[in-house]
Structures are given as structure tokens and as C-alpha cells.
Amino acid sequence: MSSSNELAQDRTDWAEDRTILANERTFAGWMRTGMASVALAVGLRAVFGEFEPTWVAKGIATIFIILAVYIFWAAQEAACKTLGRLNDNEAHAQPMNRMRILSIVFGFGAIAVGAILWAL
């Protein structure tokens, strides 16, 4: 391969590595957004307190819990899809299973928070 082709390949490899790192940052951002949705659901409990009927406040909080679970699922789905199209060169990507496991754990955590909110 000629020197200019090698340089072009190096630039392509580095761009791919930057895309992998950007994908991981985007995944982390969506996970933070999901956690913010869970925090909002918990905060609604504090704001509404002894609001009557209680099912209204709990229902609104549940919407944010469901939204959080969807965000977790969508984040891992998009991140894994993007990661599947890329090859890591110098940057070592997080394994897809790790992203899936994190999303599953966060999702179950959000559902548990929702259950606790309904139990209160």
C-alpha cells in the first residue's frame, strides 16, 4: 500500500474510533436521561405528597417510570446497532453485552421504584 493510502486508512480508523467513543458517550447520556425520568417520578411523590386521589399522582409518576424503561431499552438498542457496524482499532469499545446488562439492570431498578411508589 502506498504512503497516502496508509495515511487515509489511518484517518479512517481514527474516525471509526472517535465514532465508537461518541456512541458510548451518547449511550451514557441516554442512561442519564432515563435516570432523570426516574428521579422525576420520585420527585412527583414528594411534590404531590398526600394528594387525593392518590392514583392520579401515582399514575403520572408511572408514566415517567415507563418512559425511563423505554429510554434504557432504546439507548442500548441504538448503541448496540451502531457498535455492530463499527470496528474498533485503537479504542477498545465496551462490549455490547455490558450495555445490555446495564440497560436491563436500570430497567428493573426503575420498575422497582415504580412498585415502591405504588406501595406507598
Automatic annotation (TrEMBL):
It is a multi-pass membrane protein. One of its GO terms (cellular component) is endomembrane system. Coiled coil: none annotated. Its main location: membrane. The chain crosses the membrane at residues 27-48, 54-75, 101-119. It is found in: Endomembrane system. Residues 18-75 form the DUF202 domain. Keywords: Membrane, Transmembrane, Transmembrane helix. It comes from the Bacteria. This is DUF202 domain-containing protein. It comes from Sulfitobacter sediminilitoris. The lineage of its organism: Bacteria, Pseudomonadati, Pseudomonadota, Alphaproteobacteria, Rhodobacterales.
